[in-house]
Specification:
Bound molecules: iron/sulfur cluster
Helix content: 40-55%
Structural class: alpha/beta
CATH class: Alpha Beta
Strand content: 5-15%
CATH superfamily: Aldolase class I
Shape: globular
Number of strands: 11
Low-confidence stretches: 373-383
């Protein structure tokens, strides 16, 4: 890659990228303040190329929100409801089972399931939920629950340790943890945005425990609300440090905050430039996480397509039904066909590949049954 046309102030960072060296937090801040989008694209594309060649992956998945009833009221959340609220919902296990059975007909390889911190659903309900989905297809990956849900289940519902809760859920079929709930790790931001939610240390501890058990998860960042750029970089630093320790994160998924129907409706949404800059900086800074996702549900498909030139190598999935961002005002479609995803990737000059929940490539239906098991911690290649 020819970096000779890059602005002078980015040359030291370009040298590090060229030599595959780690950039510092000061470098990341410089990138987040850089107005030269072309230069950011060149640098982030170099890292993407080193890690993933010209491939862009996607997954056939089905989102399910089992309930939006929640005991917390995070400021940025338009999804949660109290039990008596008119927009509160709670799906029966039969309904969830039917939705997953339908989606399996379309070839999904993953069900992605999160909900609020429900005050009354009991342990038997959660165990039965995971067990019934697992029984539908032993190959299907059940990717479920955020770190805060796991803490809620451990403390109030299962009444046991985080590890024991995770063990019990894994025993009945939990395959991977979702990365949601990380928001921005800074304590002051969390206090203002989501008081009562778990701290950064608690979020990291749930993922650390899961990784130590040999599990894999994704990690996220909800940005573009009240945080400073320094706090954004600090969030990335904490993700990178845990990944150095465990190697258990498979991919990073940053989301721009969607303010429209939240109590923070006065916040100006992150612009397209801001989103591309954040993706590119994440790609360059998180040298130990192989995959970077453009979450088309929040950013829209056209911008997600442009993001393929800013370090992104994954377009997430078909999703089929999304509630969290749409209840906050997103007006993007709720599902995508494989044809559309592949067209968008090809049009951007990249090669589409279907992946599983661990970013392993699936090129045919029979591949799915023959994929090698998820590598254990010591042998993880894509750390
Ligand atoms: S973000 Fe999660 S924990 Fe916070 S109110 Fe919404 S559903 Fe509840």
């Amino acid at each position: 890659m020819n970096f000779s046309l890059l602005p002078h102030e980015l040359r030291p960072i370009a040298e590090k990228v060229e030599q595959q060296q780690r950039i510092s937090e000061a470098d990341a801040l410089k990138l987040l303040r850089c107005n030269d989008l072309n230069a950011l694209g060149v640098l982030a594309s170099a890292v993407r190329e080193q890690k993933n060649g010209n491939y862009v992956s996607y997954i056939l998945n089905r989102y399910i929100n089992y309930s939006n009833v929640c005991i917390l009221s995070c400021q940025f959340c338009a999804f949660a409801a109290r039990k008596r609220d008119p927009h509160a919902f709670e799906l029966a296990i039969d309904e969830i089972e039917a939705a997953v059975r339908d989606a399996l007909q379309s070839g999904i390889t993953e069900v992605h399931m999160v909900g609020g911190l429900h005050p009354t659903l009991d342990k038997a309900w959660y165990i039965e939920l995971v067990r019934r989905i697992r029984a539908l297809d032993p190959e299907l990956t059940i990717k479920a629950f955020t770190a805060i849900e796991i803490r809620h289940l451990a403390q109030r519902i299962f009444k046991t340790s985080i590890r024991d809760t995770l063990e019990q859920l894994r025993e009945v079929g939990l395959g991977a943890l979702t990365g949601g709930g990380a928001e921005i790790f800074d304590a002051d931001v969390r206090d203002e945005l989501c008081r009562g939610k778990e701290s950064a240390d608690e979020w990291l501890e749930v993922h650390r425990t899961w990784h130590q058990m040999g599990g894999r998860s994704t990690c996220t960042m909800l940005y573009g609300h009240i945080e400073t750029l320094e706090q954004r970089v600090d969030h990335l630093r904490q993700i990178r440090e845990l990944q150095d320790e465990t190697g258990g994160f498979t991919g990073f998924v940053p989301f721009a905050f969607e303010p429209r129907t939240t109590v923070l409706a006065h916040v100006k949404p992150a612009s397209a430039v801001e989103q591309l800059r954040t993706l590119a900086t994440s790609r360059i800074y998180l040298d130990n996480i192989d995959h970077l996702t453009a979450y088309w549900v929040s950013m829209g498909l056209p911008l997600a397509q442009v993001a393929l030139s800013f370090g992104v190598d994954d377009l997430h999935g078909t999703i089929m039904e999304e509630k969290i961002f749409h209840m906050a005002g997103a007006n993007t479609p709720q599902d995508l066909t494989v044809k559309t995803i592949e067209h968008v990737i090809r049009e951007a000059g990249r090669e589409p590949v279907q992946r599983d929940s661990y970013y392993r490539r699936i090129s045919s239906a029979t591949d799915r049954a023959n994929l090698t098991p998820v590598p254990q911690r010591d042998e993880l290649v894509c750390a």
